[in-house]
Amino acid sequence: MSGSIAVVDPPAVRAAAPALAVRGLRKAFGKREVLRGVDWQVPAGRVIGLLGRNGAGKTTLLRCLLGLSPLDAGEVELFGEPMTEPGGERLHRIGFVPQSFDLFPWMKVRGYLDFTAAFYARWNHELARRLLADWELDPRQKIGELSQGQRQKLAIVRAIAPEPDLLVLDEPVASLDPQARRAFMGELLALMRAPGKTVIFSTHITADLERADADIALLREGRMQFTRPLAELRRHYARAVLARPGGWTQAPALPGALGARIAGDELHLLTEDVPAERLHALAQEQGATLRLETPSLEDLFVELA
Ligand SMILES: Nc1ncnc2c1ncn2[C@@H]1O[C@H](COP(=O)(O)OP(=O)(O)OP(=O)(O)O)[C@@H](O)[C@H]1O
């Protein structure tokens, strides 16, 4: 039999598509340009922590990605297909936890979850029940009577129960106490054990991202600066602590030094891709001893964001 043979397996192509691809995304509120051409690719199967200072545009970006806020320019693809309108088929594959959850105050927790479940092709009732119990949410309580943290927990249960392929969370743990935060991160990682699942969450709690071993995406000045695994960030950045009696009045010039801080007799330099030999040579030139440290993600954020 002659004729062409299909060489591409469609499911394989779908699996290889990034969970999210953004090109040239722009968004302004009046004259305030918040997103100034965001280009961003998020491969399927990763946990991404979205970092940025207050007002950097994280919420705006997440809302634009999900079709909840119109774009001024640019393109968004979800699961390899252009995002043209919210909802539709993709509703079943996306979970979203907004920054604040104020809907349906008159509904009871159980009623709200049952009502929501009806919209989804897939809903893990067992998981929802277990999370309610673990997080001590009373199914008979009215949403309007829940504390802010309890509402946030409910929003997370609602987002996780459909077992979404892409889970987007906007500061999901801001109102949670430390126990609930840890439990939530545990659930998040458990969800991620299934192949191809992707989680994007914005947060200011860098320790959570370290615990989740997330890839770090940094939004600054309206653009995505990088998306890198934490381990890779740690390989590129170092803290060099130079100490000498008599201290320092200013930091010596060093290409690759991103920030300098003087503390007593010590000079702390945050460096990017500066070889250790170069730092040892600098210490010798300056008559100082050298200590090399791995900066925490919080240290990096303070310098880079
Ligand atoms: N609906 C709106 N109308 C006008 N300006 C807005 C609107 N939404 C957001 N902004 C502005 O856009 C900028 C980015 O806000 P956004 O909430 O996206 O930041 P963020 O990075 O999520 O901040 P945070 O870390 O404080 O939550 C801010 O200057 C904000 O005032």
TrEMBL record:
Keywords: ATP-binding, Nucleotide-binding, Transport
Gene3D superfamilies: P-loop containing nucleotide triphosphate hydrolases (3.40.50.300)
Entry GO MF terms: ATP binding; ATP hydrolysis activity
SMART domains: AAA
A Pfam family that the UniProt record links to this protein: ABC_tran
CDD domains in UniProt: ABC_DR_subfamily_A
Tagged with keyword ATP-binding: yes
InterPro entries (UniProt xref): AAA+_ATPase, ABC_transporter-like_ATP-bd, ABC_transporter-like_CS, ABC_Transporter_VariousFunc, P-loop_NTPase
Domain (ABC transporter): residue spans on this chain: 20-246
Protein's UniProt name: ABC-2 type transport system ATP-binding protein
Organism encoding this protein: Fulvimonas soli
